[in-house]
């Protein structure tokens, strides 16, 4: 039996959330990374193309939301290849970044990704700055994810925050990291999902935060692929 309310919730993300968020990013001159599920790209190819045409990065998120840890090595590799093919066909770009379903890859994941030409993954919660790791004797970048500054966690069923409270959390997080950045490299990641953060009230809060952050000297808004390339190029990036 199909879950019709869930289906329409995801449709809201495509119909309302993504256009609203794209307008927000344009208004503030921010370019972001969009982790795209292959099947979703196949269903909405024009939307995937528009995201890339506006200057945003198309990164991978698996071909479906089948948990990656349930797949055999061949199935896992096939899923990532299909995801890459869907993104390439729709956008003309090849993804170099990856986010596993609920961050949970397998011991094989990074090796498979590197063999497919990926440069980084985000499935790490252990730092507030980019890192590198070694995969098959070669460096591979880590651009850490966040569960704190994350709409799917903060607006969940368990004690959800109001939009205003989420905005205050973002400002508090930014203020602390900005102060620390006087002494060391700092990065702030904010994770948004079109069907969740793309509502009117939450987009307003995100816009207010972007305006606040942009008033601070020395702040750069970067796509994850750009952060990954910095991590791979700089000599003093932590190695995990």
Structure summarized in a few sentences:
This protein has 240 residues and is of the alpha/beta class.
Task: Name the poorly predicted regions.
Answer: none
As laid out across the biggest beta sheet, the strand order is: 3-4-6-5
- Shape descriptor reads globular
Helix content: 40-55%
Domain NodB homology: 3-222
GO molecular function, one term: hydrolase activity, acting on carbon-nitrogen (but not peptide) bonds
Protein name: Polysaccharide deacetylase
Pfam families: Polysacc_deac_1
Give a written overview of the molecule.
The protein has 240 residues and is α/β, with parallel strands linked by helices. It has a single domain (4-232), classed as TIM Barrel (Alpha-Beta Barrel). It contains 10 helices and 6 strands. The chain has helices at residues 4-28, 38-43, 45-53, 73-91, 109-115, 151-154, 163-180, 194-197, 200-214, 224-233; strands at residues 33-36, 57-60, 97-98, 120-121, 131-135, 138-142. Strands 3-4-6-5 form a 4-stranded mixed beta sheet, sandwiched between helices. The chain has a two-stranded parallel sheet with strand order 1-2. α1 (4-28) packs parallel to α9 (200-214) and α7 packs parallel to α9 (200-214). The mean pLDDT is 95.
List keywords for this structure.
single chain, 240 residues, TIM Barrel, 4-stranded mixed sheet, two-stranded parallel sheet, 6 strands
Topology:
Layout (H helix, E strand, L loop, with lengths): L3 H25 L4 E4 L1 H6 L1 H9 L3 E4 L12 H19 L5 E2 L10 H7 L4 E2 L9 E5 L2 E5 L8 H4 L8 H18 L13 H4 L2 H15 L9 H10 L7
Parallel strand pairs: 1-2, 3-4, 4-6
Antiparallel strand pairs: 5-6
Helix pairs in contact: 1-9, 3-4, 7-9
């Amino acid at each position: 039996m199909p879950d019709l309310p869930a289906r329409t919730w995801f449709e809201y993300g495509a119909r309302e959330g993504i256009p609203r968020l794209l307008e927000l990013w344009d208004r503030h001159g921010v370019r972001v990374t969009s982790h795209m599920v292959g099947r979703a790209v196949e269903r909405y190819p024009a939307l995937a193309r528009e995201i890339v045409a506006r200057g945003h990065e198309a990164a991978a998120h698996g071909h479906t939301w089948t948990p990656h840890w349930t797949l055999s090595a061949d199935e896992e590799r096939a899923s990532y290849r299909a995801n890459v093919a869907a993104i390439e066909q729709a956008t003309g770009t090849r993804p170099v970044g990856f986010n596993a379903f609920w961050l949970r890859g397998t011991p094989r994941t990074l090796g498979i990704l590197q063999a497919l030409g990926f440069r980084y993954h985000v499935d790490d919660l252990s730092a507030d700055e980019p890192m590198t790791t070694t995969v098959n004797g070669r460096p591979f970048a880590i651009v850490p994810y966040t569960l704190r500054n994350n709409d799917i966690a903060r607006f969940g069923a368990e004690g959800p925050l109001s939009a205003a409270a989420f905005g205050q959390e973002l400002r508090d997080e930014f203020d602390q990291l900005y102060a620390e950045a006087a002494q060391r490299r700092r990065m702030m990641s904010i994770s948004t999902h079109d069907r969740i953060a793309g509502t009117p009230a939450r987009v307003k809060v995100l816009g207010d935060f972007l305006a606040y952050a942009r008033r601070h000297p020395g702040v750069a808004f970067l796509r994850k692929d750009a952060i990954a390339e910095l991590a791979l190029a700089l000599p003093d990036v932590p190695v995990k």
